[in-house]
Input
Amino acid sequence: MTDSRARRSDATRAKILAAARERFAADGYERATIRAIARDAAIDPSMVMRYYGSKEGLFAAASEFDLRLPDLTAVPRDEVGRVLVEHFVGRWESDEVLTALLRAAVTNTAASERMQAIFREQLGPVIAAVAPDPREAGARAALVASQILGMALTRYVLGFGPAVEMDRQELTRWLTPTVQRYLTAG
Output
């Protein structure tokens, strides 16, 4: 493949992914269609299928992202819960892809598996590094995820009034003690 063809191919993939992220965020996995994504990207639907093979393949590619988790080993032990909560609240408020993935994960097996993999692969090692017993990292990560994902679901997906009305500081103040306990309680 020539350099110009490779650049066009990369540009086409980027357009498809950008359109897919927006469409999945706006419509959720179930309602988003290959046709709508192709229309948004101003390309033929066959090109989406050529590059990604299926809606599931496209969703997996569009939901690839790095949680950019902080290095909690550099944080004082009694502050790790607050730092992690602040990080996640910031991510939820700035990343529609994460919200779209959560929305889709509730009803779609592929999206659920993707969300599980992201949290297992990225959150697990961060928690293992600060847990009193690294063998408990999986259980601790599941408990932290229950708080983080539970709040994200009620605040950003379901729009429960009291959860939506809290400002970031109040939300952090409520979540921090529980997350701190899950991370460091012996």
User: Anything to note?
Assistant: The mean pLDDT is 90.
